[in-house]
Amino acid sequence: MEKLNWGIIGTGLIAHEMAQALKAVNGEIYAVCGTSRTKAEAFAQELGVEKAYASAGELLADKQIDIVYIATPHNSHYEWMMQSLQAGKHVFCEKSITVNSRQLEECVLLAQEKGLVICDGTTLLHMPLYKKLKQMIAGGVIGEVKMIQVNFGSCKEYDVTNRFFSKELAGGALLDIGVYAVSFARFFMKSRPDAVLTTANYFETGVDETSGILLKNPDGEMAVMALTMRAKQPKRGVIAGEKGFIEINDYPRAQKASVTFTQDGHTEIIEAGESALALQYEVQDMQEYVRSKNGAENLQLVRDVMQILTAVRSQWGMAYPFE
After folding, report:
1. What average pLDDT score do residues 140-148 get?
2. pLDDT tens, residue by residue, 94-134
């Protein structure tokens, strides 16, 4: 099997977690860069990375790197994706992959021109459970899907200096946790929603703190979402059909779901994969997309999700300072 070298841009918490997943899958990590050579070298020493670079420019100039993993704040994703693609690298970027559809479509166009793969780090799109459930739904286990409900509430500590509350860093609930809820809804819908209704409340810094989002697609399927960033909610998703409903708790990295059947009320438990291996599944899928030169289906889901997120913010009238 062809060896693929990964280069990591960023040395924060999620970069550490992905580095551990990379080592578990590949046994090694090729390169990392941080905001300074000191940070990069410390990261490399801790995680056994072969090369440490002082800047992304140095890392992207390394012709041995096949895939770049971007683990920086949302507002910088577009810049690093474009530079990585221009350097001929496949890109795996943390969610939210960009801050709006225009940015993502520019990246997609460049990737297509260069024959490169783009993928993002929305874990549920790579979990074995979801692939199994989608097959079951296609097989009619709950009949025609009518309604999807998704909640995600994260109670972030009050700190106006934290990136979660910074408009300059594309903070707010939508791009941080809402991407999971929207991805869940889109994953189980037959087609992309063509109707979006939404409203939001705002934190004192101007980012979205709570919101409600309703989607409807041409197939008549609907999805209702509730997001909160200063109030805890269960991470719970439900797919309801004519014959029953599927319930998934802790859905971003879920390994278990329950199916309740309408006719007699009995419940079956469906299990696949392991939550603890979520990032390893991402690595495996990305490498398969690169080797097969085909990640189009996943990318289309990601594009649809970003179009929805962009439509939501458009209705709110909320823009980030750098847009």
Report:
1. 98
2. 999 999 999 999 999 999 999 999 999 999 999 999 999 99
Please check whether residue 205 is in contact with residue 214, taking contact to mean a CB–CB distance below 8 angstroms.
no
Task: Find all residues with CB under 8 Å of 281, minimum gap 6, and list them.
Answer: 123, 126, 127, 128, 273
Q: DSSP assignment of 179-205, as one string?
A: HHHHHHHHHHSSS--SEEEEEEEE-TT
Tokens representing residue 166 in the block: 């910074």
DSSP state of 251: G
Count the alpha carbons within 13 Å of 117 in the hemisphere toward its beta carbon. 21
Q: Write down the pLDDT at residue 268.
A: 98
pLDDT at residue 2, rounded to an integer: 83
What order do you get walking across the sheet with 118-120 strand by strand? 49-53, 29-33, 6-9, 67-70, 90-93, 118-120
DSSP letter at 277? G
Which DSSP symbol is given to 160?
T
Q: Where are the alpha helices (DSSP H) in 150-263?
A: 173, 179-188
Q: What is the mean pLDDT of residues 289-304?
A: 95
